[in-house]
Amino acid sequence: MNQKQGYAAPVVSGVEDTFYYVILKACVMCGSCAAACPVNAIHEGNGRYEIDAGRCIDCGTCAYVCPLGAPGPV
């Protein structure tokens, strides 16, 4: 399991990488996803945080820590 600052997120191994994470309109810019991202792929955007798909490792930590469920796979 991946751990970052006391957070543990489920990790799916052995699955071909056919998706990536995005942050939906539910984002209120609380910053919990950016603080928990193990590869610093999340940054402030225009009205919500954004995920750099090139850096994202699809670990799901952002979705796990978000209180509103804004990050999700596409």
Task: Tell me about this structure.
With 74 residues, the protein is α+β, with helices and mostly antiparallel strands. It has one domain: Alpha-Beta Plaits (2-Layer Sandwich), CATH 3.30.70. It is 14% helix and 24% strand. It has two helices and six strands. It has helices at residues 32-36, 61-65, and strands at residues 2-4, 7-9, 21-23, 42-44, 49-51, 71-73. The protein has a two-stranded antiparallel ribbon. Strand 4 (42-44) and strand 5 (49-51) form a beta hairpin. The longest helix has 5 residues, at 32-36. The chain is globular. The model has no long low-confidence stretch (mean pLDDT 82).
Alpha-carbon distance between the two ends: 22 Å
Largest sheet: 2 strands, antiparallel
The structural class is alpha+beta
Q: Can you tell me the CATH architecture?
A: 2-Layer Sandwich
Structural descriptors:
two-stranded antiparallel ribbon; 6 strands; 74 residues; alpha+beta; 2 helices
Give a brief description.
The chain is α+β, with helices and mostly antiparallel strands. The protein has helices at 32-36, 61-65; strands at 2-4, 7-9, 21-23, 42-44, 49-51, 71-73. The strands form three sheets. Strands 1-2 form a two-stranded antiparallel ribbon. Strands 3-6 form a two-stranded antiparallel ribbon. A two-stranded antiparallel ribbon has the order 4-5.
